[in-house]
Amino acid sequence: MKETLLEVKNLTKSYKTGKTRLTAVNNVSFTLARGETLGVVGESGCGKTTLGRTVLGLLKADSGQVMFCGEDVTNKKRHPHRSDMQIIFQDPYNSVDPYYTVEKIILEAVQDKDKVDELLDKVGLSKDEKYKYPHELSGGQLQRAGIARAIGMHPKFMVCDEPVSALDVSYQSKIITLLEDLQQEEGIAYLFISHDLAVVRHIADRIAIMYRGKIVELADTDTIIDHPVHPYTHFLLSAVPAPFSEQEEYPVISGRQPNEQGCVFAYRCPFADDLCFHTEVPLQERSENHSAACLKY
Length: 297
Ligand SMILES: Nc1ncnc2c1ncn2[C@@H]1O[C@H](COP(=O)(O)OP(=O)(O)OP(=O)(O)O)[C@@H](O)[C@H]1O
Ligand SMILES: [Mg+2]
Description:
alpha/beta; Rossmann fold; 4-stranded antiparallel beta sheet; 9 helices; 12 strands; globular; binds adenosine-5'-triphosphate; binds magnesium ion
């Protein structure tokens, strides 16, 4: 049994806009071992970024707990493990100062200029690149600079928030391979966020499937792929698109919001019956290391 690095317990985060409150992360719990990769997969708007940022303390949780290296770091901006927890972002151009050269971007993490060259080498950028500004680099090159800045802190844990989805398909696997190599060398644990199960299955040890703020299934990657339980996981795995695209309105029965009561997926689920709409559906263990939140399966 590997040592637990991160433990997230019943984490909830909501946003208030006008009179409405949206629970973007709803009672989410998971653990992450040292050097392990947990993939978080779900469609746009299901709460992946909110989860990652709340775990890091960049957003304030409504309730729940984040334990890191055995210490409670919930909602703490400053704590002894701050630099051990890093993030790389979906859009590399939006995550760096456009007026900073690559060298200056990386110097945010390390004070020593010699270290910059070392890090550039590590992420596969040439030394010529360090005097360039973000707009002079490709998305992939800039993402490498962002990765260099993050690993310059020697983190134990990194949230990778859709790190390849803004990149060319031909470049995606190169960045994934880089992240895998860095994990091998440095023993970093990843929370790897993506809407694309095909990307995540290659890098993740375990996968959490998220729907409307909740984890609906959590298991080893092979189990999720070969023996999925939750109907939503089936949808993600099948080539057939889910009955409603993410842009479309969700059907709402008798004015209730889909996640107010009952199963969060019931409104899209072909197997849902009355019970599914009205009963709280917890994430329950089905077999060893395999949990799902479904009353039917
Ligand atoms: N600052 C905010 N204020 C209000 N609502 C927000 C805010 N940020 C996110 N939300 C809402 O919270 C929900 C979850 O958003 P989040 O960005 O975490 O989703 P996501 O899974 O990362 O989506 P994507 O795949 O598009 O990045 C969405 O419904 C979104 O509209
Ligand atoms: Mg996001």
